[in-house]
Here is the input.
Amino acid sequence: MRGLTAAAAVVLVLLPVAALTACGSGAGIRVETPAAASDPPQSRPSPLPADPLPSPEPDVTGRSGGATEGPSDGPGAADGTAEPELSDAGRLPTAGAPVSPPGAREALDVVALLRSTRAVGGMVREDLRPCDAESWPVDVAYGRLTGGRAADLVVNVYTCADGRGVGSYVFRQNARGTYVNVFADEEPAVYAEIDKGALRVYQEIFLKDDPACCPSGEDVVTYVWRDGGFAELDRTYQEYPQPSETAPGDGSDSREG
Here is the structure.
């Protein structure tokens, strides 16, 4: 999936296109820096940092975890073998680091917000797991899209393995100070950004004979906020460059006879 620019009012820093795989490597987490209008098109916000887990308290036996008394009934304890240590996977975070949109009444747990939103489908929820102990496959941008007192949130969820977008959402703060979902697109591969006060959504397009790796192009749809909802303002199709059928010098263009 191609990385895209988060424009004008977005306040997460934009990273180079290599950030598409940063989630898998745990690299490159920065937040709260205004994005300039001149940012290059091949860029995107950084992954959502993980909320660090507290260090486990040692129990009276000197092991990590809660205190226990007497012999353990766990596997391996009866025959005197050591219990397996908790793996790194078992210590993965359960929440993303809280974010504070400009004008919001309180910090938000974006992961919890996604999990509590009905518009977030089951397949996206399956991907809503931390990539590692430092980051989630989620990026967040802030901007003025709906005319509210607080900044709106544009949230993208993607896969850890290849950065393929599986869901794009917009959240708006209501009169009670709660963020509610006002836009959702879960057609892979999708990516949304803020561009000069408008919502721009990129959607890969696969034609009949396209392999799974290589879509023919993408739809670029621009939405604006009107009468309490997003209305489509413009839609364009951009064709991706296609690899030539025969590579130069491979001899496949030679003719028989």
Notes: The longest strand covers residues 229-239.
